[in-house]
Amino acid sequence: MKNGWQTENLGDLCEVLDNQRKPITKKDRISGPYPYYGATGVLDYVNGYLFDEQLVLVGEDGAKWKSGENTAFGVTGKVWVNNHAHVLRPKRGKLLDQWLIHFFYYSDLTRYVSGLTVPKLNQAALRSIPIPLPSISEQKRLVQKLDDAFAGIAKAKEYAEKNLQNARALFESHLEAVFTQRGPGWADKKLEEVCGFQNGFAFKSNTFKTTGAPIIRISNIQEGRIDTENRLVFFNPKDYGENLDRYRIVKDDLLIAMSGATTGKLGFNTEDTTFYLNQRVGKFEPGKHLDKRYLYYFLSTRVEENLRISAGAAQPNLSTEQIKGFVIPLPSINEQKRIVERLDNLADQAQRLARLYDQKLEALESLKKSILHEAFSGNL
Fold first, then answer.
1. What is the Cα–Cα distance from 362 to 137, expressed in whole angstroms?
2. For 135-183+332-380, CATH number?
3. Contact 37, 79 (CB under 8 A)
4. Nearest-CA neighbor of 281 among 339, 197, 366, 214?
5. Fewest CB atoms within 10 Å of the CB: 135, 143, 229, 261?
6. Distance in angstroms (rounded) separating the CA atoms of residues 370 and 71
């Protein structure tokens, strides 16, 4: 911290208005024009308010407190605040609202958080946090510099994010065009006419092990791949008397999640390891007239239309009969391979662009943290 700056605890710099907060359960809320705030921002709009002034809210529980996370945010006017956000009125002769908000964004406050089951930044801990205090005029100067810099960064991030979306949309439009602009000789076939399909086995969860033969579950199916890093469970084949060979998954097998949050997700097994299909995971076994990656690209464009996820169900669900009944447009196998080669090249280009824009976004976030460090070190 710069020489000449003071430090005071937050409790000496802010009035804490937590005793004026009041939660409203969702069923008791009456819709209205006033924002209803919780730990991370607006949760709803209600027909009443508790505060009508400029304030700073800080997440008490259900929030994030690491450096670079929006622990605090400013509000103004008529608002309602529940009991998951602390309500602060800075003593503005000594502390600016935005200086405090920037400080919370800059700081890692996890050491002030207690509770394992429900982490919480309680009021006593909040009051004890030391706040660096340059003069009010210096706070104003630094806040203006930070606000200007962050506005520029926000615009650059918006531009990068838009370009990232455009790169993905461009690939998706090419993908869509392949199956809507058919050439001569294409024929519609039910999937079961050109492809075998194997549903998974109902392994009993009470037989899962920490080692043994690995099982692929619906949670392992991600965008185009199988996630085997953190979610695998295992079993001992000797616990089951029947032959499980038809449930084996080998390298290059194409799988689909048939229920839960990942319903309709497709993934290739890219590993040499042999896995086994759990219940509600299916495996495609294309015949000689169907290219496996062609099938993948086609299904990935028709998750809602062709996978026909059950509407209104408690959770999305696909049956084996539905999957076997998918209608797929088929050119010759040679044409399928040409289409796949073209789409693979486009996918590689889109992924390279996505990586570049992701790196740009990371660099902009690092720049933001660097500027904050300079400000709170007194070097800006």
1. 32
2. 1.10.287
3. yes
4. 197
5. 229
6. 18
